[in-house]
Design goal:
Layout: H1 4-11, H2 15-22, H3 32-44, E1 63-68, H4 72-77, H5 79-95, E2 98-103, E3 115-119, H6 124-133, E4 137-140, E5 150-154, H7 156-169, E6 175-180, H8 189-200, E7 209-212, H9 217-229, E8 236-239, H10 242-254, E9 264-266, E10 283-285, H11 288-305, E11 312-315, E12 318-320
Helix pairs in contact: 1-2, 5-11, 7-8, 9-10
Length: 330
């Protein structure tokens, strides 16, 4: 388990400053990039974030709960989720709202709240449990059809299509997908969009779908190692998120697979580490911190106005072309 001293040695910051950042000390005056760097290093070293910070220290009578569908381990493995929570915390402080953070198996302890932000893919059964607690519910980073809840998400279908269109413009015919599946073992938007695109464009895809057991670097590493061992290498791979892609890169390095000369890689999220791995990751930038802050605003609007109809908001994204993907030749 990582210590403040180890984080200090990497970030070159004092242990007291690191402690204040990890404990969300609002009186600390440091740049946001510094905070993000400390949080990223803490995650990489598996730092055990103290649970004493689960509740805000404001005196507001408005209390919101944030319930994640993923586990604490998933959160540590993927900075994307931490960034969303970071945005929620900051906005809650600005709005003088008390916020408590939970994982799905903690639902029984969620009581006396004015609203719930449900992050990730929650089942209909879980959503019904939320309704017993409060009518004010926001689905964040989860798209549901015909729902009565407010929804704030990204368009994974369109993002997937834009990556695959880029691959096609590069001249690739053998395009793979590396992802994972949640508790329900159902295809997510990325996998569905990948299959639909391949069918529409008459591309072989069945043998190029690779699914790990989670959206983590370890899973990406294990999945890519198996692909190489099975001699089933495509020309390009769309990877479901950056954490998976970092593991994919590690497996490529260890097996002398040259990226992007032999294999082009494109992923999603643009976490801070994406720019600094080698080769740097081509990815899709999603403002995850804004997702968190705007999500809290949207829930507050529903609570404050007693609005009865749902609002559906999609946050735009941007393709970031770096070194892990071949450039289009004109």
């Amino acid at each position: 388990m990582a210590t403040l001293k180890e984080i200090s040695e990497i970030t070159k910051l004092s242990q007291s400053t690191i402690s204040r950042i990890l404990n969300d000390d609002v009186s600390l005056n440091v740049q946001e990039t510094t905070k993000k760097r400390v949080l990223e290093v803490a995650q990489q070293l598996n730092y055990n974030f103290s649970k004493k910070n689960n509740k805000s220290t404001t005196t507001s009578t408005v209390k919101f709960a944030v319930v994640a569908s993923f586990s604490e381990r998933d959160e540590i493995n993927d900075p994307y989720y931490l960034s969303i929570k970071y945005g929620i915390k900051n906005e809650a402080q600005l709005q003088n709202i008390k916020v408590s953070f939970y994982y799905e198996n903690d639902i029984s302890t969620v009581k006396n709240v004015s609203g719930i932000i449900a992050i990730g893919s929650h089942s209909d059964c879980i959503l019904k449990e939320f309704e017993k607690i409060t009518p004010n519910i926001l689905l964040l980073d989860q798209k549901k059809q015909n729902t009565k809840f407010d929804t704030l998400s990204i368009d994974l279908e369109e993002i997937t299509k834009s990556i695959l269109v880029y691959f096609t413009k590069c001249g690739f015919k053998k395009i793979g997908y590396i992802g994972a599946r949640d508790f329900s073992n159902t295809k997510d938007e990325r996998e569905k969009a990948y299959i639909n695109y391949c069918i529409l464009n008459k591309l072989e895809y069945q043998k190029y779908i690779y699914l790990g057991n989670e959206f983590s670097s370890n899973s990406g590493y294990e999945t890519m190692t198996k692909i190489i061992k099975d001699n089933n290498l495509p020309e390009a791979i769309f990877v479901a998120n950056d954490s998976l892609a970092i593991g994919v890169l590690k497996a490529c390095h260890e097996n002398n697979i040259l990226v992007p000369k032999q294999l082009s890689i494109f992923s999603i999220n643009d976490i801070p580490a994406a720019e600094f791995v080698y080769p740097s990751l081509s990815t899709v930038h999603i403002n995850s911190e804004f997702l968190g802050s705007f999500g809290l605003k949207l829930l507050l609007d529903r609570y404050s106005t007693s609005r009865e109809f749902p609002v559906f908001v999609t946050i735009p994204s941007t393709l970031i072309l770096r070194e892990s993907c071949k450039k289009i030749e004109f």
